[in-house]
Amino acid sequence: MAGKNPTGEIDARYSSEGAAPVQWAHARGLLESAEVFWLSTVRPDGRPHVTPLLAVWLADALYFCTGAEERKAQNLARNPHCILTTGHNTLASGLDLVVEGDAVRTKDHDLLKRLAGLYVAKYGTAWSFEVRDGAFHHPGGGEALVYGVSPTKVLGFGKGTESSQTRWRF
């Protein structure tokens, strides 16, 4: 997939001696294939809110959906700053990724149709959505708002015999 190709910078303070930065293509591939993400938002009183969700990667952004009445949607209506994380829940291997950016609601019909197709391709038919009125609609009922997060910064934490911390700026 063509798109932004930022250069990774290694942070030697948190990396094994001689560690090299992870290539963005590898990190982007993990964002495309990861099944579960954790979304961090800020409640109105300043406390953090974290919840797992599904997301798809398209055109240099992560997209997720949520009901308008859910806490994450209410938080994003007040403060769009958020973080999406994904990775391996082990110490011995893998790359954990932290995506920082602002969540922007999308209502574009054509984009929503593409995203709905990506949800089915990635997660199966249980995640089929109809697109209407600028939102996803599940056949079983319920409307879901769709948000895109274009990264402003991504951190990658490599684990295993060689640890590394790579930063990509956008």
From TrEMBL:
Q: Work out whether the entry's keyword set contains Lyase.
A: no
Query: What is this protein's name?
Result: Pyridoxamine 5'-phosphate oxidase
Cellular component terms per the entry's GO annotation: cytosol
Q: Which PANTHER family match?
A: HEME OXYGENASE HI_0854-RELATED, PYRIDOXAMINE 5'-PHOSPHATE OXIDASE-RELATED FMN-BINDING
Keywords from the named record:
Oxidoreductase
Tell me which SUPFAM superfamilies the record gives.
FMN-binding split barrel
Gene3D superfamilies recorded: Electron Transport, Fmn-binding Protein, Chain A (2.30.110.10)
Please, which domain of life does this record's source organism belong to?
A: Bacteria
User: Which species is the source of this protein?
Assistant: Nocardiopsis ansamitocini
State the taxonomy lineage. Bacteria, Bacillati, Actinomycetota, Actinomycetes, Streptosporangiales
The GO molecular function terms of this record are: coenzyme F420 binding; oxidoreductase activity, acting on the CH-CH group of donors
Domain Pyridoxamine 5'-phosphate oxidase N-terminal, chain residue ranges per copy: 26-126
